[in-house]
Design a protein that fits this description.
By secondary structure, the protein is an alpha+beta fold. It folds into three domains: about 60 residues; about 190 residues, Exo-inulinase, domain 1 (Jelly Rolls); about 120 residues, 60s Ribosomal Protein L30, Chain: A. About 30% of the residues lie in helices and about 25% in strands. It has six helices and 21 strands. The strands form three sheets. Strands 1, 2, 4, 5, 7, 13, 14, 15 and 17 form a nine-stranded antiparallel sheet that branches. Strands 3, 6, 8, 9, 10, 11, 12 and 16 form an eight-stranded antiparallel sheet that branches. A four-stranded mixed sheet has the order 18-21-19-20. The longest helix has about 60 residues. The termini are far apart.
Amino acid sequence: MKKLFFILFLLIAFSSTQTINAQFFEKLKKKTEEKIKKEGEKRTEDKMNKGVVKGYDEVEKQLTGDKTDGKKADDKSKDIATKKNNESVTEGSDKSSKVLVSSKYDFIPGEKVIFFDDFTSENIGDFPIQWNTTGSGEVVTTNVYDGRWFHITNSRGITTLDAPIVLPENYTIEYDVVPLKDVSNNNNTEFRFFILSTSKVKDLNYGLARPGEAAIAFTFGYSNAYFTYFRDGTPSQEGRETALRMLADKKYRVSIWVQKQRIRLYIGQEKLFDAPRAISMNYKYNMIRFDRGTPMISNLRIATGLPDMRSKLLTEGKLISYGIYFDVNKDIVKPESYPSIKEIAAILKDNPAVKIRIVGHTDSDGEDKSNLDLSKRRAASVKDALVKDFSIDMGRIEIDGKGESEPIAQNDSAVNKALNRRVEFIKI
């Protein structure tokens, strides 16, 4: 009898143990599955965050003009230095034509150039002939950025164009700028840019704080960027601010678009300001000026007349574009070209039977043979952008290059040379 009870006890114990073990393993299984699920979600989130960070990094590089070419940004910025000599650098070709950026970037430059200066006709170390200042400055070259630059060296001075300029109701202003540290002001990189209406255009100290004067003032600094407008010497309370940092030794493209009362400003491909009532129609704006800071500026272009690209291409049969940009001696299409190429692509998509020939043109600087080759390569890069980035059938596009052989103006001034550097689209 005792043996029977003992056997029954073992059976009951074994059965209970099996039940407990089953429950234990079931709980363990659920915990393991939950842990695996959470780990998977965490890894997915990490990948997404890394992707977002990488995306922000790429955007920041574009906005800050980062061209480190594999070097650390800090090391690269230390390399910048002015060289007071007449050395020139010939850059190689880069076949990349990727120009896609945010579709919110809609800046298209004016068609008729009324002022242009890239300082190529100036001697290194001289003050540029088309400018005036209450401070000081000189034309320089750098070991980082191509071309010649006007370096404003006195942050307490006012720098403007020497000849008065009449700004119409609709116009665009563009320039490249490299903020430099002002050693006389705690290494500050801040500078200001004005569009003014003044009755004494030759008096550089006259303007902002007087009745009958008006101005739009943009301030670019190491911590933010903001604008304020002045009327009758009184600053408006409607000024706006944005958290854009302009870093020392980095190149930026500033683009301003005025359409009657509306003014828009872009840094690179980012629209910073869009003010619909900032410009007063009661004033005639006739001066631009820089003050505060010691920046370097180049490729300053003022133009009027927004081109009717669709009508010129489809009706007149030829469109001359100044809105497609290349670096000096390069055939790579710059991102600032996006709005113009996008508009041309839209015309071609809306008119599928239309075929075009893209023709590149240069100014007379350099050798004829090199300019001819460069113009053809630039036309090919524009075609690549239309085909690869906007899905235009390559069979609809022919390319050609004329180099300096077909100027539309004498190559005797910076303005005329800028007119000759162009891309033409011809309906065939």
